[in-house]
């Protein structure tokens, strides 16, 4: 309580303990029971009865003292452990119990060191007391009593306890018989009360048993969540307690130099501190283990990389040796079997288009057979009128380009939507049914045209003028029947797709360019066919077919069935076979002559307009056309008709 006052704490004083009041009653000056006993012992006329009367006189009304109801030589002291009755018989004699000087001399000279040491101390104390009595003006020295010795020993023990930190171990007996598995509550409670434990617990509960200086308490500073940098340690302590315990709280008080805590607050601080330490230890362990695992991972990765490098090298060397051995064996086999392979390949290519029979044996219409017999001289005469020329003076404007969405129209899309089967037939094989969906009235014509196409591509007995006649006959069938045009284009595409014979493939592309010169594919086939010739066309023929499809599309935008009036001319056949351009000699009425390029899908008005533009006429030239002089006759051409139809009509 004195420390609470010094630290300026707000507290309620605790009443004096029961044990302290009882001790004062027994040993305090001048009328404590032990003091009265010493005083009576020093008087020669005192007796046990006078000692008892003195006790009755001074302590008769004390709460710790009780007189006997009968006149007996006894008195009762109410200790905190319970009332104890004392018999005063021979109290004074027992208190005077002293050893004679002769006894002290004899035992102090004992050969046993322990005995001589004890009695030498007693003899020295007796001599010191005797000297003090001699200095006291001749008075008789006061004899040492048992009570004085007990009090002196008790004072020494108390002083020693105050100088040290004492720890007591209280042993509690569960039952008076000391048997196992028996717990007597009243007996244990009595022991706790008599040993002062309950009173000590009450005192600790009322006060603040844990007292820590500010410097020691700041070891809990990390519990505040962040390090407070205040000017005073007291404010740091208050911040920690406010964060952990709460503010305000009756579990703690902060003094001038110390922090006073109740047991609950101390336990809360310790629990939080242990949790913080556990978290810190776990964090350190986690980071250290992570560091070890990363180091081990790097080492393992390096080792794995080395192992992989060696193993891959081993596999590569093994594979190289195997491939080298296989290559040597393969080269040996090729050298041995090369003549046989070449002969077999030649036989396969020769028999590929022949199939079950020679295409030259396929039947042809009677009218075509008659034309082949009668038209030989005429076609030879027309072929002699076509010669190679220098680059033209007037060229066609090259302003065409592929549609930006051409890649969205593969030929496979047309196959899926218009073919009866989703695959191409083998090149050179006659069809059993048309490729596209046709009405019943056109199916026989489609199969007949298929035989003509196979003969045009695969019959090696056909000569130049015969090819032209057969090709024009196929083109004429397409000009006369719009429903067969997509079927004809599809059959020609089937013959060009993955054809191993280059000669047959070239004939198929010549036929494709010839057909595109006189009629255009339907809108459904236009872009897929343009995509096909762009991706798979033979060198030179892809550009020729692209231009014919794009120029034809300009005339078929309004009417998809629009076409040329006559089959391709001899000039177109020659240009398609040689993958070249067509040039005509143009004469004017002022006797000028110059060469000008012409295309299959060019009208008379377009041709005349380009000629006038080339001669410097900047105005739009509409209504102009051309005429052709044959022998003594002029043949005029309407502006909307095609230039090469004028030549085709003459042929």
Automatic annotation (TrEMBL):
SUPFAM superfamilies: P-loop containing nucleoside triphosphate hydrolases (SSF52540). Belongs to the TRAFAC class myosin-kinesin ATPase superfamily. Myosin family. Residues 1-274 form the Myosin motor domain. One of its GO terms (cellular component) is myosin complex. This is Unconventional myosin-XVB. Residues 426-577 form the MyTH4 domain. Residues 154-176 are annotated as: Actin-binding. One of its GO terms (molecular function) is ATP binding. It comes from the Eukaryota. Keywords: Actin-binding, ATP-binding, Motor protein, Myosin, Nucleotide-binding. It holds the Pfam family MyTH4.
């Amino acid at each position: 309580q004195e420390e609470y006052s010094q630290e300026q704490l707000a507290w309620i004083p605790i009443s004096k303990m029961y044990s302290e009041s009882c001790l004062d009653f027994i040993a305090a000056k001048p009328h404590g029971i032990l003091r009265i006993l010493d005083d009576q012992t020093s008087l020669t006329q005192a007796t046990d009865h006078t000692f008892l009367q003195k006790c009755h006189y001074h302590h008769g009304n004390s709460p710790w003292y009780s007189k006997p109801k009968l006149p007996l030589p006894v008195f009762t002291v109410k200790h905190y452990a319970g009332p104890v009755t004392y018999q005063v018989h021979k109290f004074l004699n027992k208190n005077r119990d002293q050893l004679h000087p002769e006894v002290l001399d004899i035992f102090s000279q004992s050969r046993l060191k322990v005995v001589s040491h004890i009695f030498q101390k007693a003899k020295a104390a007796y001599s010191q007391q005797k000297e003090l009595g001699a200095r006291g003006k001749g008075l008789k020295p006061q004899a040492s009593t048992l009570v004085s010795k007990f009090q002196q020993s008790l004072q020494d023990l108390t002083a020693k306890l105050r100088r040290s930190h004492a720890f007591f171990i209280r042993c509690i007996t569960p039952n008076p018989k000391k048997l196992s598995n028996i717990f007597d509550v009243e007996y244990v409670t009595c022991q706790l009360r008599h040993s002062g434990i309950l009173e000590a617990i009450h005192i600790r509960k009322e006060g603040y048993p844990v007292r820590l200086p500010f410097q020691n308490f700041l070891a809990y500073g990390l519990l505040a969540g962040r390090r407070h940098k205040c000017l005073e340690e007291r404010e740091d302590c208050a911040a920690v307690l406010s964060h952990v315990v709460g503010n305000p709280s009756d579990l703690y008080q902060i003094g001038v130099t110390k922090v006073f805590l109740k047991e609950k607050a101390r336990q809360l601080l310790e629990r939080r501190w242990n949790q913080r330490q556990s978290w810190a230890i776990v964090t350190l362990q986690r980071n250290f283990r992570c560091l070890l695992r990363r180091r081990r991972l790097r080492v393992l990765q390096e080792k794995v990389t080395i192992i992989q490098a060696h193993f891959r090298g081993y596999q590569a060397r093994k594979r190289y040796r195997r491939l080298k051995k296989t290559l040597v064996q393969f080269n040996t086999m090729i050298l041995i079997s090369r003549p046989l392979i070449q002969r077999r390949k030649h036989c396969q290519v020769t028999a590929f288009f022949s199939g079950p029979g020679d295409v030259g044996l396929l039947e042809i219409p009677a009218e075509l057979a008659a034309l082949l017999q009668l038209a030989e001289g005429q076609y030879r005469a027309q072929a002699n009128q076509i010669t190679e020329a220098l680059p033209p003076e007037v060229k066609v404007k090259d302003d065409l380009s592929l549609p930006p969405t051409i890649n969205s129209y593969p030929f496979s899309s047309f196959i899926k939507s218009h073919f009866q089967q989703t695959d191409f037939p083998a090149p050179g094989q006659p069809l059993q049914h048309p490729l596209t969906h046709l009405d019943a009235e056109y199916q026989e014509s489609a199969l007949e045209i298929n035989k003509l196409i196979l003969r045009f591509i695969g019959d090696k007995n056909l000569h130049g003028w015969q090819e032209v006649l057969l090709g024009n006959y196929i083109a004429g069938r397409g000009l006369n029947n719009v429903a067969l045009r997509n079927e004809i284009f599809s059959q020609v595409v089937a013959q060009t797709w993955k054809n191993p014979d280059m000669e047959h493939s070239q004939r198929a592309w010549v036929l494709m360019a010839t057909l595109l010169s006189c009629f255009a594919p339907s809108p459904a086939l236009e872009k897929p066919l343009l995509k096909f010739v762009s991706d798979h066309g033979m060198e030179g023929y892809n550009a020729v077919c692209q231009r014919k499809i794009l120029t034809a599309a300009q005339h078929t935008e309004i009417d998809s069935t629009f076409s040329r009036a006559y089959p391709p001319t001899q000039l177109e056949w020659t240009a398609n076979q040689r993958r070249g351009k067509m040039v005509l000699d143009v004469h004017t009425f002022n006797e000028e002559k110059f060469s000008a390029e012409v295309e299959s899908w060019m009208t008379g008005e377009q041709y005349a307009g380009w000629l006038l533009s080339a001669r410097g006429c900047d105005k739009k030239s509409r209504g102009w056309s051309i005429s052709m002089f044959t022998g003594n006759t002029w043949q005029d051409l309407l502006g909307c008709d095609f230039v090469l139809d004028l030549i085709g009509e003459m042929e």
